[in-house]
Amino acid sequence: MRRPIELSVNGVTEEVYVEPWWTLARVLRDELGLTGTKVSCETGDCGACTVNIDGRAVRSCIYPVMKAVGKKIVTIEGLSGEDDSLHPLQQAFLDHFAVQCGYCTPGMVMSANALLQENPHPTEAEIKEGLKGNLCRCTGYNKIIQAVAAAASASAPNKEN
C-alpha cells in the first residue's frame, strides 16, 4: 500500500506516494518525471543513475526511497541555474567533447559534482577515483577527465602574480 512521504528534490519539497520498497530512481523517474536520472543496470554497477544526496554521489537504482526522506537530493535537472544556464560541469562536458551518446553523462556529471564539492581542486588521479563507479562505452574517459579538470580550474580563484 502506497504511503505519502516528502522528499527534498532540487530545492523543492515534493510529496509523493510510494511503496516502501521502491528505489529512489523509480520515484525520481516515474513519479516526479525527472528522467535525466538514467536507469541501466539496476544493480548499482554502471553509475548512470547517480544523484547527489547531501553532497555525496549515490546510485539511485539501489538506494531505497525511504532512506532519502529528510535528505537533500540533487539530480542533473537541479544543477542548472535559475535562468536555465548550464552548470560549469555541464558546460565543461560540452566544451571538451565529453559527451558521446549521452546516456552515462548525467551520472558522470553528478559524480563529478560530488567530487568537486568535496575536493574543489582534484588531481587527475583523484578525478579518476571519483568517477570509478561510472561506466562509459563511448568516450574512452579521457575527455571526461579533461572536462572535470577544466571545471575545477574554472572555479579556482585567480592568482595574482
Q: Can you characterise this structure?
A:
- This protein has helices spanning 24-31, 88-95, 105-118, 124-130, 142-155; strands spanning 3-9, 12-18, 50-53, 56-59, 72-74.
- By secondary structure, it is an alpha+beta fold.
- The chain folds into 2 domains: 3-78, Beta-grasp domain (Ubiquitin-like (UB roll)); 88-155, DNA polymerase, domain 1 (Orthogonal Bundle).
- The protein has a 5-stranded mixed beta sheet, sandwiched between helices.
- A hairpin with a 2-residue loop joins strand 1 (3-9) and strand 2 (12-18).
- Helix 2 crosses helix 5 (142-155).
- The radius of gyration is 16 Å and the shape is globular.
SSE map:
Layout: E1 3-9, E2 12-18, H1 24-31, E3 50-53, E4 56-59, E5 72-74, H2 88-95, H3 105-118, H4 124-130, H5 142-155
Parallel strand pairs: 1-5
Antiparallel strand pairs: 1-2, 3-4, 3-5
Helix pairs in contact: 2-5
Primary descriptors:
161 residues; Ubiquitin-like (UB roll); alpha+beta; five-stranded mixed beta sheet; DNA polymerase, domain 1; 5 helices; 2 domains; globular
Brief summary of the model shown:
The chain has helices at residues 24-31, 88-95, 105-118, 124-130, 142-155, and strands at 3-9, 12-18, 50-53, 56-59, 72-74.
The overall strand count is 5
CATH topology of the largest domain: Ubiquitin-like (UB roll)
Spans of at least 5 consecutive residues whose pLDDT stays below 50 are none
Within CATH, the superfamily of the largest domain carries the name Beta-grasp domain
**Distance linking N and C termini:** 64 Å
Q: CATH architecture of the largest domain, please? A: Roll
Q: What is the chain-wise order of helices and strands?
A: EEHEEEHHHH
> Which CATH C-level class of the largest domain is it?
Alpha Beta
Which structural category do the helix and sheet elements fall into?
A: alpha+beta
Strand order of the largest sheet: 2-1-5-3-4
Relative helix content: 25-40%
Helix run count: 5
Q: Identify the overall geometry.
A: globular
Overall structural domain count: 2
